[in-house]
Every structure is written in C-alpha cells, then in structure tokens.
Design brief:
mainly beta; 7 strands; globular
C-alpha cells in the first residue's frame, strides 16, 4: 500500500485511504501527529466487509484525516507489534489551507 508523502486539504475536507490490516497477526496502527497537530484529526478505523464471514482474519483498515484549521501537520503512521517491532511506516505531511 502506498500513501502519498504530502497532501493538501482545505479546512473541512477529508482524506481517506486504505491501509494494511494485521490485527489478527498482533499488529496495530500507532499514529503520532506533530508540528501543527491541531490542524488535523487523524484516526485509523476497521472497515468490515459488506457480508462478514467468521474466521476471515483482520478487517481492512482505513486512514482518515480531517482538515480542521490552517497549518502543516506531520502524520507518522506505524504498523507496530506489541514490543515495538514496526512492520510498516508512513510519514505524510498534511498542508491545511483556508476554505474558499
């Protein structure tokens, strides 16, 4: 999965992108937002399939970024196992500009 290294959003816009799901393998996404952290709201969520079947493992995941106020935020997203082993890491610079 490839995420862009930079995105630009206007206040009120949203960015969504699929990310790896590996919860059944002991991994979870850790998110750290630095620089202008108040400029964005960031979360990772599970996206259940329309017809979930038992025993299918991890749900697909999605990165969601909401632009809240003008600024530049740096999102560090790491797929990490308990104990600190990082399987996958992405750093995305988010420029938030005024709407309109």
């Amino acid at each position: 999965m490839a995420l862009p290294s930079e995105i630009t959003l206007a206040v009120g816009e949203h960015f969504r992108a699929p990310i790896t799901g590996a919860g059944s393998q002991g991994y979870r996404w850790l998110v750290e937002v630095t620089v202008d952290a108040a400029a964005v709201a960031v979360r990772t969520v599970g996206v259940p399939p329309p017809d979930p079947s038992p025993g299918q493992g991890s749900y697909p995941r999605e990165l969601q970024i909401d632009a809240l106020e003008p600024g530049v935020a740096v999102v560090d997203l790491a797929l990490t196992r308990v104990g600190g082993e990082v399987r996958e890491r992405h750093v995305v610079t988010v420029r938030v500009v005024a709407a309109g």
